[in-house]
Amino acid sequence: MNQTRLKSASVSNSAKLTVIFILAIGSVFLSFFLGRYSISPKEVFLLVRERLFDMPAGLADSSATVFFNIRLPRVISAFLVGAMLSLSGSVYQSTFKNPMVSPDILGATAGAGFGAAIGLMLNAGSVGVQAFSFSFGLIAVLMTYVIGVVIGDKRNMTLSLVLTGLVVAALFEAMISLIKYMADPYSKLPAITFWLMGSLASTTYKTLPLILIPFLIGGVPLFFLRWKINLLSLSDEEALSIGVNITALRRIIIICATLMTSSVVSVSGMIRWVGLIIPHIARMIVGPDNKVLLLASVLLGGTYLLLVDDVARSMTAMEIPIGILTAIIGAPFFLYLIYRQRSKRQ
Questions:
Q1: In the structure, what pLDDT confidence band is assigned to residue 237 with cuts at 50, 70 and 90?
Q2: Whether pLDDT at 252 is above 80
Q3: Domain spanning 13-345: CATH 3.40.50.300
Q4: What torsion do the CA atoms of 308, 218, 253, 332 make, to the nearest 10 degrees?
């Protein structure tokens, strides 16, 4: 009976993942056509054919420039950013056994934001800003982990890390405010403020490796460990009794998720809520099993942020910072989650 149920659930999840994958592919193709400079499906086909087979498309050079130099790298970047944030949020929620956890729980987002603010303050250029942002994101999480281990309750390390992460994040948020207070209000302050809102407007082929490489380094180990992540629902003693080192597993997850989160913030700024709400949606669709949940989170996260970015760059004459839209969508959904949990308890 149990084997039949498991087999049925596996088939059902496979069908759901197939649908999610088709939606993801559809969102990618749809995004090629959307924007203030519209490109028809026929024009996309002709441009790709021209690039691959050297067959003249007969289109204006501006169409090729917009598609290959602007839209294509942006579509890829948007999908990868959403996938990384959602994957980080999903593994964090499993690690800390808390459905309200997001990728910035250990201070990575605040630390990366502070680093970017310093880079902009020092006129470090785009590469310098990204380097500062990425470095301080790692530093923030390292501070959280070290402080949590040194002064935290070793009997409940999960809670210690969460509380320490809140303190470290608050510290870096305060330092961001200090940088903004000291910044030139006519040049530096607007640049810092806009960057912190989150945007993919500056993504190019040069920034793609800054997203793709951390995604591979951080995401691939998580997929290989996804069956072990399910064991984080057990107590440390129960996990040790079956031969799983929970401390080492938790450390690997934190390193991988931090690497992805810091790289995302260094390229696109602060884009919140994606890593909180998308894992919940994925969990409602395919269930809590991380062997399926992580893949669903990646596909749904990439699809979600890609569609939000389409709205951000198409809705008005001036591009809307994507962080604003994710907050507008995410906040009401967060309230729905609270209501849903209360209904379950009752």
A1: low
A2: yes
A3: no
A4: 0
Those residues whose C-beta lies under 8 Å from the C-beta of residue 307, and which sit 6 or more positions away, are 27, 30, 31
DSSP string, 259-310: HHHHHHHHHH----SHHHHHHHHHHHHH-S-HHHHHHHHHHHHHHHHHHHHH
Which distant-in-sequence residues (6+ apart) come within 8 Å of 189 by Cβ? 180, 183
Distance CA 255, CA 156 (A): 20
pLDDT band per the 50, 70, 90 thresholds, residue 70: confident
Q: How far apart are CA 294 and CA 292, in angstroms?
A: 6
Kindly state the average pLDDT of the residues 320-326: 90
On the question of pLDDT at 146 being above 50, the answer is: yes
Reported residue count of the chain is 346
- Give the pair of three-digit tokens for residue 109: 């987002």
CB 181 within 8 A of CB 237: no
Q: What pLDDT shows up at residue 1?
A: 46
pLDDT digits (tens, 9 = 90+) for 265-300: 999 988 989 999 999 899 989 988 899 999 999 999
**What is the 3-class SS of 82-143, one letter each residue?**
HHHHHHHHHHHHHHCCCCCCCCCCCCHHHHHHHHHHHHHHCCCHHHHHHHHHHHHHHHHHHH
193, two tokens:
């403020």
Q: How many angstroms separate the CA atoms of 113 and 196, rounded?
A: 7
* Helix-then-strand count for the chain, H and E: 15, 0
Rounded to an integer, the average pLDDT of 18-45 is 88
CB-CB contact of 141 with 111 (8 Å): yes
| Separation CA 205–CA 161 (nearest Å) | 36
Q: Where are the domains of the chain?
A: 13-345
- What is the pTM for the complete model shown? 0.90
